[in-house]
Amino acid sequence: MHVVIVGGGLVGAAAAVTAQQAGYRVTLLERGASPLSTPEQAPWDLRISSVHEKNRHWLQRLGVWSRVESSKHLAYDALSVTTRDGLSVTFTAAEVDQPQLGVMVENNALIRAMWHYVAEHSQVELRSDTAVQSYDLSGQQLHFATGEALSYDLLIGADGANSAVARAAGIGMRGWDYDMRCLLAIVETEKPVAPATWEIFREQGPYALLPLDQHRACLIDYRSEQEWRSADEAAIAEGLEQTFAPHIGSFELQRHGSFPLRRQRALRYIDTRGVVLIGDAAHSIHPLAGQGVNLGFADVQELFEQLAQKPLDQALRGYERKQMAVNQQMMRVMDAIHVGFRSEHLAARAAVALGLTAVSKLAPLRKQIIRAAMGDSQI
Ligand SMILES: Cc1cc2nc3c(=O)[nH]c(=O)nc-3n(C[C@H](O)[C@H](O)[C@H](O)COP(=O)(O)OP(=O)(O)OC[C@H]3O[C@@H](n4cnc5c(N)ncnc54)[C@H](O)[C@@H]3O)c2cc1C
């Protein structure tokens, strides 16, 4: 079987590794530059993911985790959440007798590790700086501007939230903008940073810290689209200082950038002409709980498990049935957190407070939540 993957980001590259290991012939098409041409020692990029333990173990079994530069990932062993009313709950890996909950990893470093892996295998063809000119789904062929045609048995759309594969297959999307922007900033701190991630909710939106190494962190500040869009450099530096200095002391801002927040889901994940969507092409969620790429990796695992057991059309249907339910459940949880923790409404705030009080006191519930954060089960 020839598997063609459009999009060589985190999820598409993981699909290429998995498809190669399943014995398929693979072509990976990426419209951007090859990640193999990025220098390894470049400073931390802004795009960072928290990958939970279950997925990290999977990446380890695939043989890619050991290839990620050690300076571009950090294990974290605790996470805490504080409500608008100042109620706080902390979860630790130690409570479930584990050394860590997951890892913070630079997206580029992980993508590079996966591209390095597939570049070593002759049954995978990597094509960067490549754009598909047209999709002939009935003939199961892609056409390039050079006049070349590429046939496939399975076309995987891993081309992110604005998926050309989904459009070509006529797959509709449903979604909305949260009217919020997420500002990410890499900072160097004077005091050591604990290997713990935290998030604090306030009226405008939450703010959070992801630890990167002993004196480096990624600060995340969610505010209204208008507030961050209109802020100049000085206002951004001042906003970060006011928000984070009380928690982490003085720091030096190294780089920052902001992303609009959008929730979107494909109305179908598959097309009967041998097309399947995975990762953000199928679903993009609020990054609040750092689950986007974890869901994408789960898509890859489920898709190839189904393909190993069933004929192609049945496998695609099985994949869609399972992952659509899982992903929509996570989207609902994210929306409930987004609304519940920000709400002005007394009832919503009371519900959050009662929930957190219960969580902080009930050991079995705490353990269940910690295992869910590690990817072992769903909430
Ligand atoms: C601010 C922010 C913070 C986040 N933090 C986390 C986190 O902590 N943990 C987590 O799990 N998730 C997080 N996410 C979500 C996570 O980044 C995404 O879910 C993940 O990157 C999706 O990967 P993907 O490969 O599906 O899509 P993408 O990362 O969008 O990759 C798509 C790839 O396809 C390529 N492409 C696009 N169109 C074409 C085309 N027509 N032809 C060829 N190639 C194409 C692109 O160049 C790109 O390389 C965060 C997201 C945001 C915005």
From TrEMBL:
Which pathway does the protein contribute to? Cofactor biosynthesis; ubiquinone biosynthesis
Is Transmembrane set as a keyword in this record? Answer: no
Pfam families found in the cross-reference section: FAD_binding_3
Q: Which UniProt keywords apply?
A: FAD, Flavoprotein, Monooxygenase, Oxidoreductase
All copies of the FAD-binding domain together span 2-332
Family of the protein in this entry:
Belongs to the UbiH/COQ6 family.
Task: Report what the protein is called.
Answer: UbiH/Coq6 family FAD-binding oxidoreductase
